[in-house]
Amino acid sequence: GGWRRGHTGRQWDSTSVRTTAELQEIGSAVARTAPAAAKDVSMAGLVGTLGMLAEASGCGAVLDVAAVPRPDGATVGDWFTCFPGSAFLTADDPGRAVAPAGPATTARCGELVPGSGVRLRWPDGSTTPALPGPVTGLGPATGGTP
After folding, report:
1. Backbone phi, then psi, for 127, in 5-degree steps?
2. pLDDT one-digit tens code per residue, 109-126
């Protein structure tokens, strides 16, 4: 993919270069892997979406900056805040293997932690707040079955 024309740094085109079969395989990754939690990356970008997932889970999150797969031509700041076209965040037990998502790139790149908000963990081990608290203000999701 690449930046959508006129939207450099804001919208990545990860879909128009894919075949229908590839898009179907990527789109079914969450159903096939059945993680404990999942969220499609929205226009809020990777960090904003991680904040939403953490808030709904009643916790905070730490994102390992160096572990996040990033395409050539995208800076860390742009990649963490842009709409990536098609991407999912999943959360599961720490010991569970990262399942391949077919033609998509997968990686273990963070953790859900006590607290709220999103912190970035840099390669030197230091952390900085990216989102200091809840993103939506809706709070944790409550019980019930879909």
Report:
1. -120, 150
2. 999 999 999 999 999 999
